Amino acid sequence: MNGQESDIELFAQRLVAEVQNLYRRQPEIPALLGLSPEAANNPADLLADVLASATGGQSDSSNVRNLATVAFNSDTDGFRAAITDIETTARKNFEPGGLSATLLYSRGIHALLGHRVAHYYWMSAKTDLALALKTLFGRAFSTDIHPAAVFGQGIWLDHGLGFVVGETAIIGDNVSIWHGVTLGSTLKDNGTRRHPRLGANVTIGADAILLGGIDIGAGSVIAAGSIVLRDVEPETTVAGVPATSKPRTEASFTGI
User: Fold this and answer.
1) Which of 92, 100, 105, 255 is most buried (most C-beta within 10 Å)?
2) Contact of 172 with 155, CB cutoff 8 Å
3) What angle do CA 126, 130, 87 make, to 5 degrees?
4) Residue ranges, CATH 1.10.3130.10, the chain
5) What pTM does this model have?
6) What is the pLDDT along the chain (256 residues), one digit of tens a residue?
7) PANTHER family given for it (predicted)?
8) What superfamily would CATH give domain 1-143?
């Protein structure tokens, strides 16, 4: 086990411990959310239980729970990416509560968990099941994420509402995305490059629209409300309709 894998295992153990402690202190919370305290003994089962409860009556939660349990226990990379998403979100979010609150209450995390489950079944050649799950999660979380889209780890999906991702999109590691973002096509492109590819450490502001098989370079920032139709160079800030390069002020999103 390398250092990164060891860190992820520690985060998973911390997550389980925090949730167990919360359930003991406030047993009304799992009861209110329809969560099983027994599922909190295992991190993969815990993720599946939270995802099932978050669907909010869109389906028989036991079906979602069973499918998600298989996915998180079978797909080691997907499970580790999900844990990294939770740790990243807890670290970047200003709200208190740590890992447990992030898992239980973050709609962005729930949408990411749903995509990782749907993607597992897509990659397992169960494409109709993956699309059915994508539809179910879309109803629950107000997203439309194609199960074939490739997500890295350490994704921060703030709120998640209105997030649209096309089939051939690729999202790199440690990307931060606000609500209402579209990674779509131009309807002119075809083949394997119809949707944007985001490099690592990209930040995309609310309601930005990125269209076509374009490359968004690592460390770049897309300002809120921008429409991006062309490649963006690494470490570049763009804004506007259509988006054009702007001087950089700070490394953080607040600098634009």
Assistant:
1) 100
2) no
3) 120
4) 1-143
5) 0.93
6) 566 667 888 999 999 999 999 999 999 999 999 999 999 999 999 999 999 999 976 567 889 999 999 999 999 999 999 999 999 999 988 767 789 999 999 999 999 999 999 999 999 999 999 999 999 999 999 999 999 999 999 999 998 899 999 999 999 999 999 999 999 999 887 778 999 999 999 999 999 999 999 999 999 999 999 999 999 999 999 999 999 998 876 654 544 4
7) SERINE ACETYLTRANSFERASE
8) serine acetyltransferase, domain 1 (1.10.3130.10)
